[in-house]
Design brief:
This protein has about 180 residues and is mostly helical. About 70% of the residues lie in helices and about 0% in strands. It contains 7 helices and no strands. Helix 2 packs across helix 3 and helix 2 packs antiparallel against helix 6.
Length: about 180
Amino acid sequence: MATADDVLRPDYLEGIETMSLDDVRARRSACLELETSLSYVRRLIHGRLDILANERSRRDGGTVGDLHALVEDLPAILAEKGRAGGPGRLVQALGPTDAVEPLVARLDAISPPGIVSDPTNATDEDLANQVELLVTYEREMSDQRHALHATIDALQAEITRRYRTGEASVDALLQ
């Protein structure tokens, strides 16, 4: 299982021109699996941020916290209305891989699920602290995804180059 530290090392792409096509493809697959996991964790972070923002908004409006009302409002809170679209990359896998487990564990350590499952009992300071921690972790995940996209693009460009120059053959794929 590849980690972001593995695939974002400066030497990860070193010698790409001389790697076997299978090795280049394997690296690309590892990167795509990791990208799926990072995307999944970002969605979890956004969900938590949306729940906390809703609670802060309710408090700003003078509404007393009501867990039952929060649960009823979850579909609307978690809807992705108003969220900017991503870079438009085709999803390679439908779900996260084993790489997601340490990322979710870190998310839970940074922002224990308890405050999100019942933010009505949190203090304003606790809510603000949680939002700050989540925003910081989301930025880290986003930065890793952007760097990962550059690596994926370089690997894909190498595969494409090999087919264009005849170093790789489409016929070999069909066998």
